[in-house]
Design a protein that fits this description.
The complex is a heterodimer of chains A (274) and B (262). Chain A is 30% helix and 19% strand. Chain A has 10 helices and 10 strands. In chain A, strands 1, 2, 3, 4 and 5 form a 5-stranded antiparallel sheet that branches. In chain A, strands 6, 7, 8, 9 and 10 form a 5-stranded mixed sheet that branches. The model of chain A has no long low-confidence stretch (mean pLDDT 90). Chain B folds into 2 domains: 93 residues, no CATH class; 125 residues, no CATH class. The N terminus of chain B is likely disordered. Chain B has a 4-stranded antiparallel sheet with strand order 2-1-3-4, covered by helices on one side. Classes of the chains: A alpha+beta (274), B alpha+beta (262).
Chain lengths: 274, 262
Amino acid sequence: MAFGDDVAQRGWQTGSVLPADLLPLLAPHLTRPGQAATPVGADDWLVVISQTCDILATRLDAEPYVEVLHCRPVAGKPRKGRRDLQSTRYLDFRPNRDTHAELVLGAHAIADRYIIPRELLAAHDPDPARQLSDRASRRVLGWYALRASRPSWPNAFVDRISEAKDAFEDVLVPLVDGLEVRVAIAESDAELEAGQPYHVTVFFVVDEATWNNDAEARAAIHAAFGRFVGELTACEGIEVNQELSQVISGGEFRWQTAQATDEWNFANLSHREA
Amino acid sequence: MSAFIRPRTYTPRDATFYQQRPAAIIEAAEETEAPAYPCAHLLLEPSTPLLIKASGSVVFVKHCLTAATPYALRDKSWPTTATAVIESARADARSVFWEQCAEQAREAFEHAATQQRRTTTAAARLRVDRLAAIQAALGFTTQDLAAVLGLSRPQLYRWLDAADDVRMQDAKRQRLAAVERVAKAWQDRSPAPLRSVAHEPLANGSTLFALLSSDAIDEAALRAAFDELTAKLQAQPKTLSQRLADAGFKRRPSIRSLPSDE
């Protein structure tokens, strides 16, 4: 039987949680250079975050390690600024509504991420009582994908729009799926001095089916566009191009335009060096 | 000087310009589209104060200018103890100082506008909702919608901003109502926006956009054109993405579309 089959039979997949009896073997791997092993509390979750295909790879030498994320319980609800993938450094999330209805976990993308030998999985079953839901697993993987793919906007730009962040959130969060906000920043590579404005064009790209068939959703999107642009225009040192900015059907928004724009998400609103 | 600088109250509309009026400064004040303005007044030598713009209750504070400090620019948001005083300048350098003053005034106004909490009113929200419903039916670009409503593009953006409590003139209000009726009539016929056929030539040689943006909107003519346009819309070939969807290739959900934790 191939190595990956052993692992598969035990039920390992993305979102599996390492069992308590595996912890003594993990200590050497949960370390940083020159530091003692990271203590893992009884309520902490060590979640496997590698893709399932990598966890179950047939040959051990092809995928010798799996990645795990050390998540700790957070009191109350997911914290503002750390929920809903708003930060690429911190994530507060609900691991599984079905089995742990009230539990919220928190983790740091880098400080809490470790790699462990994959061979450990072949000799142990995952924790039978704890497992990320499919939604939570997709969120965690999406969080890392976002971290790798997000554009890096100038600090000066981020500073100028920071005061309106809550307003932007109010505008965008209630909107339907099938909308993507994309922005073009003419000076995206420049840290401008005070008095030098950033020139920005905003596109609300609407799913073609929504554009053609759902007038009610379109009305909500147009209202949000007006408010979003209004908030952005009110930010000192930001000039919105009123001619080019628009709500547009995804059927009309071209690849060429997509290349000149970045997707707006709140994870972009952090400083480059932070 | 005290004859000019005394406690007085101004509203934005009553803001008064005294004495000399450096165009750049006045433009800076007037171009700042803030719901309210800070008070900034420039003193051109002791006996000739210049008020640039005032809003709400404004109390002027006395300045003791001397011959060595003929220019002073003050903003309400600045502490009175930190009044900015521009040092004396030669006459030939005064234009430079005026530009500096204008820039400071512009920054002060923009800063105050940003700091100010952006609030909204029921009337403003209603206006935005009406415009959003029109756009849901028409789907026009901002430029085209502005033309249809008889507005400049900046004016339309102000109308679209619920935090901007603009006052509509009667003519604009009537125009908005007429366009609203046309949009509603189209929406009753088609779930798709008009945009893709608005510039298509009609049998009479005109286009719907031309009819909509003419000085007097002929609603009967527009409604008559709807049948023609509905047929054109239905005859449009499917886009590549529509054909992909028909063939079973669906749009993949984005990360953002994952349901919220809450």
